[in-house]
Amino acid sequence: MNLLENIRTTLLMGPGPSCVHPLTYYALGRPTLGHLDPYFITIMDEIKADLQTVMGTKNVATIPISGTGSAGMETSFVNMIEPGDRVLVLINGVFGMRMADVAGRLGAEVDTIEFEWGTAVDPEEVEKKLKEKSYDIVAVVHAETSTGVCNPVEEISKILADTDSLYLVDTVTSLCGMPVEMDKWGIDICYSGSQKCISCPPGIAPVSFSDRAMEKLNNRKTKVPNWYLDVSMIAQYWGGKTRAYHHTAPINMLYALYQSLKLIIEEGLENVYKRHMECHKMLVAGIEELGFKMLVKEGYRLPMLNAVLVPDSIDEAELRKRLLNEYNIEVGAGLGALAGKIVRIGLMGHTARDYNVKRLLDALSAIIK
Ligand code: PLP
Q: Residue 166 — φ and ψ, nearest 5°?
């Protein structure tokens, strides 16, 4: 038996991956070209331009890295950090913690400010810390997927404008689901993932480096301590008149990214953000009507990741199991301290449709009755 024959179509409403558009599946099956084929290079150039559009940047060093969102995180830190660099990580969930771990492994002197999970990073605390000490890099997660909190990336950027710190932002969950404006918000290093609001299967991580960040990279005293993710080498494959082989690009995954970005740009970024917000509002209204409460206060909630508190009277694991087994709907479990206490409902990319929200609410209603 070929196991692929029996894969059922699950409505992916967890923290990623999200549902994939049929045109993106079609793109995955287009004929594989060589990684230096001139036709493929024109596709690469369009991907770079489209990534600049969705990331709100003119940065030349805007490229997709082979690997998932964590490869984007590693790429960002490994290219920027030299041993002894001072890094401040703002933490209010799992992915902020992961950033601090990654930076520490590279020999950075890492300081953190921790905020209660489910609440946002407080810019005043950041300002206070920056008055006490200067940092080479300040890092924050825009959309903290573990809690459903939106961090005030733009407000923090105003504080950093008076400093020499480079600003590093994780947009794995936010990109293409809500505005991300690298240039306007003074973000120097930004990374994302393909499987959330871009609605491409997992495996590609868009990254972008400002001129200031590239200057730090080009003036390193030590080599980037990771060959595969060294952006100064990868950039020679992704730019310039003659392209140099670095590693064999995941050709068909890049077709999928190309198609997913085209779908977003054709719909229009503003329309895409509006669709995410409308689905979020519909979900919150429906979920509250069913008697559930949201973990995060209004005003700090992400449209694409909804953390819903599960009352003690309901077995959270059983609820997720029944949604999957009986209704073919996947939602996510809580992580860390929130395990067993919340479910995470994703409304990302192609999943963010009113008919999907209705299907989930109907299923939840039937189960809890
Ligand atoms: N950062 C954030 C905010 C995420 O939500 C995730 C994944 O959920 C990651 C980083 C890591 O991405 P991946 O699991 O694709 O490696």
A: -85, 145
Which residues neighbour 181 within 8 Å (Cβ) at sequence distance 6 or greater? 56, 154, 187
Give 22-265's CATH code, choosing from 3.30.450.40, 3.40.50.740, 3.40.640.10, 3.40.50.720: 3.40.640.10
C-beta of 172 in contact with ligand 1 (< 6 A):
yes
pLDDT of residue 37: 97
Q: Check residue 97 and give left, alpha or beta (phi > 0: left; psi -120 to 50: alpha).
A: alpha
pLDDT digits (tens, 9 = 90+) for 255-270: 999 999 999 999 999 9
Q: Which two tokens stand for residue 16?
A: 């990623």
- Other Cβ atoms closer than 10 A to 140: 26
The answer to whether the CB of 250 is under 6 A from ligand 1 is no
Residues comprising the chain, all counted = 369
Question: And the tokens for 140?
Answer: 């924050």
The fold of the 3-17+268-368 domain, in CATH, is Aspartate Aminotransferase, domain 1 (3.90.1150)
pLDDT greater than 90 at residue 143: yes
pTM of this prediction?
Answer: 0.98
Ligand 1 atom closest to Cα of 202? 15
What span, in angstroms and rounded, lies between the C-alpha atoms of 84 and 72?
Answer: 22
Ligand 1 mean position, distance from CA 38 (Å): 32
Q: Is the peptide bond before 17 cis (omega within 30 degrees of 0)?
A: yes
